[in-house]
């Protein structure tokens, strides 16, 4: 039987009583805690501040719980509406208490998603709305002639509270990697103790236990987590967090720097190589052609170093992406062959590309990166082979007969200087060159194989090296690929012969008399280069040296294509493009606009295409690519283009 001082006996009125002894115990415990936290245990960490708020909130809950226990028991003494208000205040104080508790938990899991935080707030708001609505509807509880009566859907409040608890359980479990296991377990205890006490209260009805459960969980949390050692740990973790943020900022600065560096260096190279292309095309003096060839080799070498550094920074910042699409293996092999054959023959080497003629022709994968991998290994083979040959062989091993998946094998064998057994482990490290003194005269940065390995890894493939020092090396790359076109690829060498005939006619300069294009670039040299590369096409070429001038010209003339530089002072290419396209009465609003840019960082192509540009050409501009784009877009417009 309950002692009168701790029980509110209401047998005579509602045949029930409330045992408030646990509420009183909770208040005493919490007052001691609150004083302790303000004095000896005081710190100003966010966690500690939240705990102080939580302790105060629970005191309010316990006090209002006792008050409402009295007002329910002696309901006949006070008006019903006052009783309703007092009980609603108790409900609000409970919601505030839960809100602070949830905030305390979220404070320990900073990587909890924004969505989790929003879900938590929405649930709390719903609970508050439900309690407020009860004032007018009596859904949860109401008073009639001093008697407390449950509403028809009072359980909704319990369901919402349970939803909050289970959502928080999810947050803790999903982000438990943020904290050592013991801490997550203490936080789970903090979450579940009040829930357990609530359930017990529901079973034993008249014993008010919830505030005690909350006080108890606050005590555990404070002494388990908010102790000096833990605070030191938290401080260290906060410092680490700040350091990580700073490192991220530094990394972003590096990427920005590389983007602008790349732009700054690519712009003059565009001028150099473009002008050089014209010298090579127009000069008949063998001495000058030889000089120009050397400029081309050196320029391309410089370009490949910039590309390697850019790739490395992309990989390090996690910005390198694999963009799979359908591709034709012959076209990759052919490009690699064309890019390396000159150098091989200059070095007196035989460069042979071969394949299993029965292998499928088309695959799904990242064409650009596979080409880069083959190119890196083949160009190394040529660089590090004094005499003999470099041989590339490809085949496809199906996972099982007739399957669409399998492994694309690329084998590159050279008869070069070979690699010492003990050096093979260092081969794929960044900026590592083997036998520096011996290879000093061979240009290189020590990045190629590092990048190759990273790319192969990103495609879930493998790269393996077998080498005999002084005799040669064999690099074997295996990349899982999906077959898209099962057509037989045919023999590479045979197809190459046919292709040479086709391509020589295809690259034969096309003509488009009567067509008009606009070139927009703030660097005059770039305009000259583009004009030079398009010479012979009989296209009428206008130019503008700024965005504003471009807009003026597009108001006066109708163009078939606009080639637009991106970075220009005052109005950049994107802004100028939008102005042209958004001019409702503009004669060039449907003209295809091709962005020309020295910004070759990852994802830039997608960025430009999303802006609405029709094509993307990176600088330095290759004549073949430029003509291809021009031909495609002019042909697309439905007018006649002529071939020689
Ligand atoms: P580099 O720009 O120096 O060629 P890589 O990363 O491509 O950089 O290669 C790293 C090193 O591995 C080279 O400096 C060279 O010593 C060695 N190496 C790469 N390929 C070969 C090869 N085919 N034969 C012999 N040595 C090679």
List its traits.
19 helices; five-stranded parallel sheet; 18 strands; single chain; alpha/beta; disordered C terminus; about 650 residues; binds adenosine-5'-diphosphate; elongated; disordered N terminus; seven-stranded mixed sheet
The gist of it:
By secondary structure, the protein is α/β, with parallel strands linked by helices.
What can you see in these coordinates?
The chain is an alpha/beta fold and 644 residues long. It is 56% helix and 16% strand. The protein has 19 helices and 18 strands. Strands 5, 6, 7, 8, 9, 10 and 11 form a 7-stranded mixed sheet that branches. Helix 12 packs antiparallel against helix 13 (448-458). The longest helix is centred in the middle third of the chain and has 55 residues, at 228-282. The radius of gyration is 37 Å and the shape is elongated. The termini are far apart.
């Amino acid at each position: 039987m309950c002692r009168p001082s701790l029980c509110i006996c209401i047998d005579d009125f509602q045949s029930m009583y409330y045992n408030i002894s646990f509420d009183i115990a909770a208040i005493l415990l919490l007052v001691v805690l609150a004083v302790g936290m303000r004095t000896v245990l005081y710190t100003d960490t966010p966690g500690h501040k939240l705990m102080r708020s939580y302790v105060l909130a629970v005191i309010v809950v316990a006090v209002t719980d006792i008050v409402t226990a009295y007002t329910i028991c002696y309901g006949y003494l006070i008006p019903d509406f006052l009783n309703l208000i007092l009980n609603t205040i108790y409900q609000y104080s409970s919601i505030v208490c839960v809100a602070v508790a949830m905030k305390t938990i979220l404070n320990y899991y900073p990587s909890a998603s924004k969505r989790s935080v929003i879900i938590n707030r929405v649930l709390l708001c719903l609970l508050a709305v439900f309690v407020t609505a009860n004032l007018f509807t009596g859904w949860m509880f109401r008073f009639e002639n001093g008697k407390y009566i449950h509403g028809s859907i009072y359980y909704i409040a319990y369901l919402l509270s349970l939803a909050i608890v289970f959502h928080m359980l999810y947050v803790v479990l999903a982000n438990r990697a943020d904290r050592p296991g013991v801490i997550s377990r203490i936080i789970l205890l903090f979450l579940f103790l009040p829930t357990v006490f609530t359930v017990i209260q529901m079973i034993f009805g008249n014993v008010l236990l919830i505030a005690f459960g909350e006080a108890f969980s606050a005590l555990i949390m404070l002494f388990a987590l908010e102790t000096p050692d833990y605070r030191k740990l938290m401080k260290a973790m906060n410092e680490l967090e700040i350091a990580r943020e700073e490192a991220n900022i530094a990394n972003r600065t590096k990427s920005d720097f590389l983007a602008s560096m790349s732009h700054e260096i690519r712009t003059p190279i565009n001028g150099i190589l473009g002008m050089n292309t014209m010298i090579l095309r127009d000069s008949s003096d063998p001495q000058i052609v030889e000089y120009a060839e050397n400029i081309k080799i050196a320029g391309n070498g410089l370009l490949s170093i910039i590309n390697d550094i850019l790739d490395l920074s992309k990989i390090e910042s996690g910005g390198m992406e694999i963009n799979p699409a359908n591709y034709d293996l012959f076209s990759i092999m052919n490009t690699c062959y064309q890019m390396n054959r000159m150098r091989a023959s200059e070095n007196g080497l035989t460069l042979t590309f071969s394949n299993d003629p029965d292998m499928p022709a088309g695959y799904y994968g990242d064409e650009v990166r596979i080409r880069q991998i083959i190119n890196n290994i083949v160009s190394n083979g040529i660089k590090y082979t004094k005499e003999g040959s470099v041989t590339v062989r490809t085949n496809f091993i199906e996972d099982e007969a007739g399957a669409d998946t399998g492994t694309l094998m690329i084998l590159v064998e050279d008869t070069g200087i070979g690699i010492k057994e003990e050096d093979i482990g260092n081969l794929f490290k960044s900026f590592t060159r083997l036998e520096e003194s011996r290879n000093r005269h061979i240009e290189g940065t020590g990045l190629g194989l590092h990048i190759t390995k990273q790319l192969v890894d990103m495609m879930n493939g493998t790269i393996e090296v077998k080498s005999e020092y002084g005799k040669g090396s064999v690099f074997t790359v295996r990349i899982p690929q999906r077959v898209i076109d099962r057509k037989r690829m045919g023999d590479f060498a045979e197809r190459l012969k046919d292709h040479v005939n086709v391509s020589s006619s295809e690259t034969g300069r096309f003509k488009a008399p009567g067509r008009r294009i606009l070139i927009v670039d703030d660097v005059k040299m770039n305009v000259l280069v583009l004009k030079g590369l398009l010479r012979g096409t009989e296209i009428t070429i206008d130019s503008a040296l700024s965005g504003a001038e471009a807009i003026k010209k597009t108001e006066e003339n109708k163009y078939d294509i606009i080639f637009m530089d991106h970075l220009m002072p005052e109005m950049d290419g994107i802004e100028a493009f939008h102005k042209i396209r958004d001019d409702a009465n503009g004669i060039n609003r449907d003209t295809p606009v091709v962005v020309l840019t020295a910004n070759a960082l990852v994802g830039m192509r997608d960025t430009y295409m999303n802006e609405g540009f029709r094509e993307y050409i990176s600088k330095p501009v290759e004549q073949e690519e430029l003509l291809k784009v021009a031909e495609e877009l002019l042909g697309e417009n439905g007018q006649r283009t002529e071939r020689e």
